[in-house]
Design goal:
It comes from Nocardioides agri. The chain has 327 residues and is of the alpha/beta class. It contains twelve helices and ten strands. Strands 6-5-7-8-9-10 form a six-stranded mixed beta sheet, sandwiched between helices. A four-stranded parallel beta sheet has the order 2-1-3-4, with helices on both faces.
Length: 327
């Protein structure tokens, strides 16, 4: 069956194609009588007409796509996938489609993706200045890094990270621990590690404690056991892991080394991943509010797209502790 065109809608409604365009694109400052507007809408529905996305992008200079780019080596945990899902739902309510894209920021990638999609905005984990310039040169009007920028999107993301680290450390302090080490893994988690490591001095100062040293744990259980044993021998009694994956590696190292948790060392994670409840012992973890974070990010991005001022006050991130057996 042949797809209906704007000309078909115009003929069925007895109006010009320009009027059809004004009505279906909800063009402002056009005096279209309500009866005419209704006739166009009814004709479009009767013919199952949907405007061409390419045509709309040509008229507006952008599409209705929000492109979210993150490096291929980054694995989204359960919490991250929930944020992405909620952002997709909320952007849809605002008339946008969220498209997740993994890959590296090569110039060819920029040419192939940005110029083809012409997104309304690009959300990215982090971006170098020259990468942002290249995207804007390719026609992207809005580039918003979640980390390493200086705008509202970055503020929302970092506020959430700060609240997680604050509650992790406060929980360990309340349990009587004074010697705390911050633990991460290798480059697969470097973005989360970098953002939270940047926040450590600020959070430690707010809590009135010495900044926890950062230790990179190997994923091999025997090597992790050796790293943990060295920390315990040095007097550390608690490990603050950047996420539950890292905490799981620390717990595996503790079992390998015969270090009892939480008697000799406490371990706290972040994210409440599925396996956190079935580790030995079950993992105490801090989890943020994915729905609230998604809501705040969507509000910031849509306001920027529509050239509206930033919200007077960004919502405070909500985080809570899931107390299990590792602290």
């Amino acid at each position: 069956m042949k797809r209906a065109t704007a000309a078909d809608v115009a003929r069925a409604a007895g109006v010009s194609r320009t009027t059809v365009s004004y009505v279906l694109n909800d063009t402002p400052h056009q005096q279209i009588p309500d009866v005419t507007r209704q006739r166009v809408l009814e004709a479009a529905e009767r013919l199952s007409y949907s405007p061409s996305a390419a045509a709309r992008a040509l008229v507006r200079g952008r599409s209705d796509v929000i492109l979210f780019v993150f490096p291929a080596e980054v694995t989204l945990a359960d919490w991250g996938r929930r944020v992405l899902s909620q952002m997709s739902r909320r952007f849809a309510q605002e008339g946008f489609t969220l498209l997740a894209h993994t890959g590296r920021f090569g110039r060819e990638r920029i040419d192939d993706v940005w110029s083809t999609i012409v997104p309304a905005a690009v959300l990215c984990i982090t971006v170098e200045p020259e990468q942002a310039r290249a995207m804007r040169a390719a026609g992207v009007p809005l580039v918003l890094p979640l980390y390493g920028g200086d705008d509202d999107a970055q503020a929302v993301a970092m506020d959430s990270e700060r609240a997680v680290v604050m509650l992790q450390l406060q929980t360990l302090l309340d349990a009587g621990h004074e010697r705390i080490a911050f633990a991460s893994l290798d480059s697969a988690h470097r973005l989360t590690t970098a953002s939270r490591e940047v926040l450590l001095p600020e959070v430690a100062a707010a809590l009135g404690i010495e900044q926890p040293p950062h230790h990179v744990f190997p994923e091999d259980p025997e090597a992790a056991a050796a790293r943990l044993q060295a920390l315990v021998d040095a007097g550390y009694t608690a490990i603050c892991a950047i996420n539950d994956h890292v905490a799981g590696v620390v717990l595996a190292g503790a079992r390998q080394a015969g270090i009892t948790v939480p008697d000799r060392v406490a371990v706290i994670g972040a994210g409440d991943q599925v396996l956190s409840a079935v580790t030995q012992p079950a993992l105490t973890t801090v989890v943020g509010d994915p729905d609230g974070l998604a809501e705040a990010l969507v509000e910031v991005v849509t306001r920027r797209i529509n050239h509206l001022p930033a919200p007077d006050e960004l919502p405070s991130p909500r985080v809570h502790l899931i107390r299990r057996g590792s602290v």
